[in-house]
Here is the input.
Amino acid sequence: DTAVSQTPKYLVTQMGNDKSIKCEQNLGHDTMYWYKQDSKKFLKIMFSYNNKELIINETVPNRFSPKSPDKAHLNLHINSLELGDSAVYFCASSKRTSTNEQFFGPGTRLTVL
Amino acid sequence: AQTVTQSQPEMSVQEAETVTLSCTYDTSESDYYLFWYKQPPSRQMILVIRQEAYKQQNATENRFSVNFQKAAKSFSLKISDSQLGDAAMYFCAYRSNNNNDMRFGAGTRLTVKP
Here is the structure.
């Protein structure tokens, strides 16, 4: 299936731990994103990245870092997890030359205890 | 920065009836894209419909249509013949043609009553 996939779907961890969420797209897109959806369902972009440029939302703590081993992957690393990091994290991708539609992964629900 | 406003946190509609979800946005740009995404309880974000700002004709996808008023910066979604499966959170989104940012509204939770 052509899609954006994320692993894991659920992640429960203790405060202070370091964790990663993986994202892969097989759509041939050149730009990938990470979004955070809080408990009130508000979606905020965290990062957008293509092979040339990383754009960081300035409100994102530097404990969060995207890592892209290749064009099809954009993983999210989170250091020293805090209670407020609990949210659903969505990966998305798009092709710059298209109608700019973004395709979303299924989301990862992160719970920090 | 562009902002997207959805003034209806919750809406409900009777099955088979029509409902309109509101969205307004603020921008100084002339070239951009607008989207409606649906998020059912499964959490998956699903594109419902898109509109290019340079097109005057309102987009339509089966039972879903938009009323795009560029001067008023309004982009409402009309769902005709509502079905139980339409129950979801609906997000309006704006994307500039100049960068990759997609700005989302706060969402409208739609309930469909049988």
In short: Chain B has no helices and twelve strands.
